[in-house]
Every structure is written in C-alpha cells, then in structure tokens.
Design brief:
It is a single chain. The longest helix has 59 residues. It is elongated and about 165 Å long. With 409 residues, it is of the alpha+beta class. The protein starts with 8 loop residues before the first helix and ends with a helix. The protein is built from twelve helices and four strands; from the N terminus they run ααβαααααββααααβα. The protein has a four-stranded antiparallel beta sheet.
Amino acid sequence: MESRTVEPPAKSMDRDLLLTDRRDEAEVAERAWDLLGTLYSRRRFILGVCVLVGVAAVVITLLMPNQYRAETRVLQPEGGSLGLGGLLQSVAPGAASLLGGEAGGFTRYLAILDARTMMDTIVEEYDLISVYDLDLDDPETPTRARAELRDRATFEVSLDYDYLAVQVLDISPDRAASIANFFVNELNRRHVELTSASARQNREFVEARLRIAEGEMDSTLRALQAFQEENGVLELETQVEAFLGSVAVVQARVAEAEIQYRALARQLGESNPQVETARSVRNAARAEVDRLLGGGESVMPVALADMPALSRTYALLRQELLIQSEILTVIRPLFEQAQLEEQRAMDAVQVLDPAVAPVKKAAPRRSLLCILAVTSAFLLACAYVLGSHWLRRNGPEVRRRLQEAGTSP
C-alpha cells in the first residue's frame, strides 16, 4: 500500500495565505504596468499639454509687470511716553492700575498706520485709484483702493532689534519708496498730534487738581489764622502745657499763703495787722488762680471750661492742614512731570533707514510660477488620460448599473 503524508492544518493555511498575497502583488503590479502603459501610450498628448502650458506661463509671466518692494524702518522716541498712568506709577506705585495699563511697544504706531484716514490720505495723495485702474464712477472704488493699498503695504515689528518696518509693493520703484516714506511722515505727524493732545490733557487735569488743592490749603490756613486771632492761640499744645504749669505754681502759692494765714490767725487773732496782711496775700493768690482759670492769662486767654471745644476745633483744623499738605506733596511732582511730558511729546519717531528706490524686483517670481504651472499641467494631463482610459474600459458597465439603479422601484 501507498503511504500518504497529511499536512497539518496550520501549515496549509499559511501556504494559502502566501499564495493569496502573491496573487495580490501580481495583480497590483499588473495594474501599475497597465497605468504606466496607458500614460506611455498618450505621452505625446501629455508632453504637448505641458509644453503648451509652459509656453503660456512664460508668456503670461513676461506680460506681468515687475513689482518692487521699498522698505523704511523707524524706532520709538527715546524715553518713550509716560502718560498719566506712567506719571502716577512713578510717583504713587499701584495708582496707575486704577486707570488701566497703557499699551506698549509699537501698538500705537500700528494703529495709526492701519487707520482708514491714513489709507485715504495716501490714496488721495498718490491718486492710487488711477494707478490701480479702478472705476471712478463705482461707489465702492474708495473701499477697493484702500483694500488694494493694505494688500501692498506691510507693517512688521522686529522682535530681535525692536524696530518697525514699513514695506510698500508697487510697479514703480520710485513710487514704492515715496509711499513708504510718506507713511512714516504721516505717522510722525499724527503721532505728535495725538501724543501732544494727550500730554496736554494730562497736564491740564493735574494742574486743575493742583489748583484745587492749593485753594483748599489756602482756605484751611485762613481758617486756622482766624481761629488763632480770635482765641489768641498759636500752638495749643505748647500753650496748654505752659498754662497748666502756671496754674500749678499759683495753686502752690495759694496753699502756702493759706497755711501762713491760718497759722498767724490762731496765734495772733484775726485783728492782728500781720494776720490781715497774710489774708490779703491769700486773697491775691486766689484771685490770680481765678484769673488764670477764667482765661485772663496771656499764655492761655481762654477759660478752662472752653478748653475741650477749643481743642476739638483746633485739632480739626490741624488735621485738614495735614491732609492738604499730603495731597500737595503728591500732586506737585505729578504736575512737574506732566509739564516735562508735554514738552517731550513733541519728539518725533526716529527714522532708522529711509526708503530708497529698490533695484531688484520683488515679484513676480516667474521661474517659480512657470514650474508650478507645468507641474500642475502634467498632473492634470495624467489624471485626464487615466480617467478617460478607465471610462473607456468600464463605461458600459457603469452605464448599465446607472440604468438599473434608475429603473429599479
């Protein structure tokens, strides 16, 4: 009998998978060669399309006018701008936070450069509506001119060297440089105008507050002077101390005179001349005490009973005087710095590099445009060839399925 070898199931499955993979690879290779063959058979068409598009791209790019980019660079004024927030921050740290932080860097410059009024001024100055060949009768023409100018103007801030670059693209190198420089001139004019107005408003505000504080200080001084003249008080604390010392001395004299009088009266009797003299001395000492307590002393010409009210009024006046003095201590430096800031606001932006007419063109990049056009044409031609080949091969089947899908309920 013949013997038969039985393969394990696992090895049989591996062999089947391997055969399937090989068949799939063969089919993929066959399809790839079929596509390459199709492209090769239509190579003249593809090459013709590429040549035609390449020639058209060369002609079109040669007809496109050269664009020139002019650039100017500006710096901020030395020292920058403080503003009221900066003044408060330098004198009273933390007070400026109540007003909000001030935008720093070139934000202010960028806002001025990109403003509608700036664009309109340049469009009118250089008659850009005619330069851009726009319709004068179209009501949207000013908007389109501004949009065109914004597309051609670039404002970039260098973070490494801290300068602002103004770039303008135009078909005329001289006009490109002139517009770039005009941007900077207008920036300078409007920056000075706005900054001067802001600094002047800050100075006027601080000056008005200073005048109010000085008026309140003067009123307080007049009230204190009237109080002193009316009550004979110059320095209440010093006068009270001296007054109490005088009262103590006179009270001691009264006590001494009283003791002497009592002692002599017991020894000599009330009718004795010495006793009468001692009585007169005691009475004189008592009268002196009454005179002092009644406000008859030049040191304190105010009765003792009126002292509390007098002290309260005097303390309120002194408190108001100290308050106004502290306010003036803060406002006077603010006013001086506001005056300096108003003078410094006239500083113009500093032009680092004025724009000059460029020699080399910035656009169009004709070689790159031609390469992109030919590459796009090649890809589109290949797609057309492969698509038409697929339709020729599968067109009847596709039409049949479409008809079946259209007639099915």
